[in-house]
Design goal:
It contains 15 helices and eleven strands. The chain has 366 residues and is an alpha/beta fold. It has two domains: 256 residues, TIM Barrel, CATH 3.20.20.70; 65 residues. Strands 3-4-6-7-8-9-10-11 form an eight-stranded parallel beta barrel, surrounded by seven helices. Strands 1-2 form a two-stranded antiparallel ribbon.
């Protein structure tokens, strides 16, 4: 034994391996989940993520008030659309008044979601000002009443889960409230909790505190905990699993325009040498962009799909060997024809792709 070992040098964490993830009655075939992403994780994005290996996906967050008044608008109903191939899929719910959560949760169940997730993590100023999302981490009694209302409204066969940040801020009081909600949620029947390693006031600035995630998992014991924050590469996904001990992880901004992150993480969990992982080629990217667009047309119609796909194409462009040129071409696209012309022009010749994991991404997740 070396002197360093006898001095208590921490051992290198064992390499994580692929294993099932249980969320209540749902048994997923791996630990890697696509997070709910406001304005992004609609049916087409979720389907692409599932095809590339995400074990489970979450729909973009729905406001309780929206769900109470969905009506028959095709645009509103598109937000609730689920493809047969993406089950199991979760619906995420956000609001302020506990009494509004039960009817909203029942609407998600009627739409066919397999799990109901409650959002106590969104740090957006407008959301906080309306006493939603991350604000609820400051009021444990209200937060836990919401959990009870949702759990009572949802059939026992469907799990209820929770998304949290590590607290409002770095104060001791904030941490006490975090654990009061965390433990109280499980006591009220929540099947799993996702914890983002940033505080609410931190928003998306600075690193996600993975040491806090490790501490939460040690505290949770056998209860299911998923980690979130700074997962922009398959290597980061592996590192979070190894360093924190969480049962699973939710990939958020790192999955926008990059469904390959799920495939690559699955490969690493299966024992593949990281050095052999290569970004998708230009033609591989073209095929996925075209399929994503086709799914968007099926859901939204061609005119709306052309507009909605611009934001996705801008993210996909990060994998192209000329990312700024391609990004600008998609930004300039005003019609479906413009979008298709940009795809045809910049993805005509095959070439190696680039690794986008070092790029700064300010896209907000819920």
């Amino acid at each position: 034994m070396t002197a360093a070992a006898t001095a208590g040098t921490p051992a290198t964490p064992a390499r994580p391996q692929r294993r099932p993830l249980r969320i209540g009655p749902l048994e997923l075939d791996s630990q890697v989940v696509q997070a709910a992403l406001s304005g992004y994780s609609d049916l087409p994005m979720r389907v692409m993520a599932r095809r590339f290996g995400a074990a489970y996906t979450l729909c973009e967050v729905m406001l309780d008030q929206f769900l109470k008044q969905v009506g028959s608008s095709s645009r509103n109903l598109a937000r609730l659309a689920i493809a047969a191939e993406e089950h199991p899929v979760g619906g995420q719910l956000m609001g302020a008044n506990p009494d509004d959560f039960a009817p909203a949760a029942r609407r998600l169940v009627e739409a066919g979601f397999d799990c109901i997730d409650i959002n106590f993590g969104c740090p957006v100023k407008k959301v906080l000002g309306r006493c939603r999302g991350g604000y609820l981490l400051s009021v444990p009694e209200t937060a836990l009443e919401i959990v009870s209302q949702v759990r009572d409204a949802v059939p026992a066969r469907l799990p209820v889960t929770l998304k949290m940040r590590r607290g409002i801020d770095d104060s001791d009081e904030s941490e006490e409230k975090f654990f009061a909600i965390f433990d109280g949620a499980y006591a009220r029947g929540v099947a799993a909790v996702t914890v983002h390693g940033r505080s609410v006031v931190q928003r998306y600035e600075g690193p996600s505190d993975w040491s806090f995630l490790a501490r939460v998992k040690r505290h949770a014991g056998s209860r299911t905990v998923l980690g979130s924050g700074d997962l922009f590469s398959p290597q980061a996904c592996m590192a979070m699993l190894a360093e924190t001990g969480v049962d699973g992880l939710t990939v958020a901004r790192g999955a926008i325009g990059n469904p390959w992150i799920f495939q690559q993480t699955a490969a690493l969990l299966g024992g593949v040498d990281p050095a052999t992982l290569l970004p998708p080629t230009v033609h591989e990217q073209r095929a996925v962009l075209a399929e994503h667009f086709r799914l968007a047309v099926e859901l939204h119609g061609e005119q709306l799909a052309g507009r909605s796909m611009r934001k996705f194409a801008i993210k996909y462009a990060r994998l192209h060997p000329e990312p700024l040129t391609v990004r600008d071409a998609f930004i300039a696209a005003r019609t479906t024809a413009d979008w298709q012309a940009a795809l045809a022009r910049h993805y005509a010749s095959d070439a190696p792709g680039r690794d986008p994991s070092g790029d700064i991404d300010e896209t907000a997740e819920a």
